[in-house]
Amino acid sequence: MPHDPHHDHPHDHDHEHGASDLSPIELRVRALESLLVEKGYADPAALDALIETYETRIGPRNGARVVARAWSDTAFLAALRRDASAAIHGMGFSGRQGEHMVAVENTPEEHNMVVCTLCSCYPWPVLGLPPTWYKSPAYRSRAVIDPRGVLADFGVTLPEATRIRVWDSTAETRYLVIPMRPPGTEGWSEERLADLVSRDSMIGTALARRPEEVA
């Protein structure tokens, strides 16, 4: 459900994303990774490449295909509005982290942004692994209190007349933002359209890329 930006949220507003922001399990993972690297069982570069692949290519590419189809197929967009979970599962993207999905569409009048104020609930089947900043207390608290300021931090400036709506993910419901389709893309194939869709644009902290950015 949409979050009330005026509601009091007792979260840490510190902008530092250091070790203090890590959960106990994340600290244990870091310690285990350090041990494996020290023993020669793991290559740091290979681990970084694997994480990068899941964060920015495999999962987000699935979501980009969903958005591209919504842009180009009015029947699919209607199905997405009706039951996003079923529409997304019908494309073969399913999993425990995306069982109940809701699609929210950006328009010139309204911009949507997703956060999880309690932890880091995130739709893995369509977005891959959550980025570090999504899990940070700074983002989780500021997104609901000052969404326009957070967007500015990401380099997104919206017209003052554009309403910003923040959606709070839970273990039961997760959200996928459908960014606005950029002009000048009429007649593009779904594959080409998907190149315009980034992970951040499906969280709502970015806009879809312009055609000239992927030329």
Automatic annotation (TrEMBL):
Keywords on record: Iron, Lyase, Metal-binding
Domain Nitrile hydratase alpha/Thiocyanate hydrolase gamma, first and last residues per copy: 25-206
Name of encoding gene: nthA
Catalytically driven reaction(s): an aliphatic primary amide = an aliphatic nitrile + H2O
SUPFAM superfamilies: Nitrile hydratase alpha chain
A GO term, aspect molecular function: nitrile hydratase activity
Domain of life of the native organism: Bacteria
Bias (Basic and acidic residues) ranges: 1-19
Extent of the signal sequence: none
Family stated for the protein in its record: Belongs to the nitrile hydratase subunit alpha family.
Residue numbers binding Fe(3+): C116, C119, S120, C121
Name of the protein in its database record: nitrile hydratase
Organism: Pseudoroseomonas cervicalis ATCC 49957
InterPro entries on file: CN_Hdrase_a/SCN_Hdrase_g_sf (IPR036648), CN_Hdrtase_a/SCN_Hdrlase_g (IPR004232), CN_Hdrtase_asu/SCN_Hdrlase_gsu (IPR023900), Nitrile_hydratase_asu (IPR018141)
Region (Disordered): 1-20
EC number: 4.2.1.84
